[in-house]
Design a protein that fits this description.
75% helix, 75 residues, Protein Yjbj, Chain: A, mainly alpha
């Protein structure tokens, strides 16, 4: 998942991201505005992950979403 993917489909992804990482608040997700670097940074802070771990988790999350038909249309 790169920054273009995140921004392009942020409105749909935002709710799924909050479901997956419930330590992220709605306000934080609104401030992230689909910015990949901000999302990675916030995941690192909230969950104590290093950069590689955060990127890996986000990539795995994206792969999971790709298997769900509702997300295929928006990404």
């Amino acid at each position: 998942m790169n920054s273009k993917d995140v921004r392009k489909s942020w409105k749909v992804l935002r709710d799924a991201v909050q479901d997956r990482w419930d330590k992220l608040t709605r306000e934080e997700l609104d401030q992230i505005e689909g910015n990949y670097d901000r999302l990675i940074s916030r995941l690192q802070e909230a969950y104590g992950l290093n950069l590689i771990q955060a990127e890996r988790e986000l990539a795995e999350f994206r792969a999971t979403l790709a298997m769900e038909p509702t997300y295929l249309e928006t990404t």
